[in-house]
Amino acid sequence: MSMLRRPGATLPPGSGALARNHHETGSRQFDKEVVTTRPSRGLEQFFAYIRGQKGLSVLDLAGASQDNINFITNLGHRLYSEDFVRSLDDNFGGKDPAELTNSARIESFLGHNLNFDTEQFDAVLVWDVLQFLPSVLLAATLERLGRIVRPKSYLLAYFHADEKSQQVPCYSFRIKDQQNILLAQRGFRKPAQLFNNRSLEKLFQGFDSVKFFLTREQLREVIVRR
């Protein structure tokens, strides 16, 4: 089961939180990870939408990170964390997620990982999670996300833009500031499916609006409004 970090929680020693005093640009080494700093239009837009507000509830699906906890709580918001991709591996034992079609298993998985009240959240940092979910689980996850966020809330998601890739980098996303993100690669994964702009619009057709940005890492940053 993945771990839920309550608002304002801190990480225990040795948990892998980033050290401070990182550089403005380029890459650095941390616990044998190469962490790259780069600007993010999607992140900038995400924070622009919630600017000036206090006391919002934000969900982070990349797992608990001290950087993200500090940044979000210092803005006056509450942060909840779920490591969605790790939980996917823990629950399905490294099997090809495309084989996952059992509705009972899907409901159990979502019951452990998105077990929140209806309209509990004002914003969700989805990151690159959705591209690794097979179609049945993906549809169920989006339905659950649509249920637990409030109207006019925002989601930030990332998708690899190379539609021919058999393996894509899987990242840990850590917030540096409102315009820059820290990317720590967690290896490579086979995406369950690849998306272009048209298929992303179809994917989020149940939401109010979708906006795209393309990065130099061939990542599509997608801002979705409920």
Structure explained in plain terms:
- The chain is an alpha/beta fold and 226 residues long.
- It has a domain at 41-164 and 193-225: Vaccinia Virus protein VP39 (Rossmann fold).
- It is 27% helix and 31% strand.
- The chain contains 6 helices and 10 strands.
- The chain has helices at residues 41-50, 66-74, 84-92, 103-113, 135-148, 197-203, and strands spanning 26-30, 33-39, 57-60, 78-81, 121-127, 149-160, 168-175, 180-189, 209-214, 219-225.
- It has a 6-stranded mixed sheet, with helices on both faces. Strands 1-2-8-7 form a 4-stranded antiparallel sheet.
- The protein starts with 25 loop residues before the first strand and ends with a strand.
